[in-house]
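Following up on my earlier thread - several people asked me to post the actual chain instead of describing it. Fair enough. Here it is, all 163 residues.
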Amino acid sequence: MKTTLKYVQLYLRLSLGIGFLSAVADRLGWFGPVGHFNVDWGNWDNFVTYTRVLMPFMSRSGANVMAILATLAELLFGIQFLIGYKTRLAAVGSFLLTLVFALAMATFMGIKAPFNYSVFTDSAASLLLATVTTYRWSVDNYLEQKNKEFNRTLKLKMYENKI
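Reply from S.P.:
Thanks for posting it. Predicted structure:
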């Protein structure tokens, strides 16, 4: 892996992970109520209302279920990106989630909305992250190294038993 890619994949993982966790924190009201600096939703009810804007065909309870599912996915992806666990799987899931989000925004809020919030960029970044072969400074990399070490030890023991 090129030296620069080591840092780029880490930067990509951290920025996507923090972005997801920040959005989750906002909708749970952890940054304060709506109206505070950089607060978009400020509480769960406002987030469900926003979800209905993106899915106007759903009832309030249906939008609440979709909001819960999106929040759980974003929480999971955010943590996975930060620690680097099952990164490729999280990147593919993140790509799909943000692509659907961007298309819903474009359809029900206008094409400019997903570009204003860089949702297509997040989707593309997730897809790019899924193509990385090695995730340095990650649980994935640690487990891969341990697996290689185990396999070397196993092969050595098998070789010794044949002699």
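The chain is about 75% helix and 0% strand. That should answer part of your original question.
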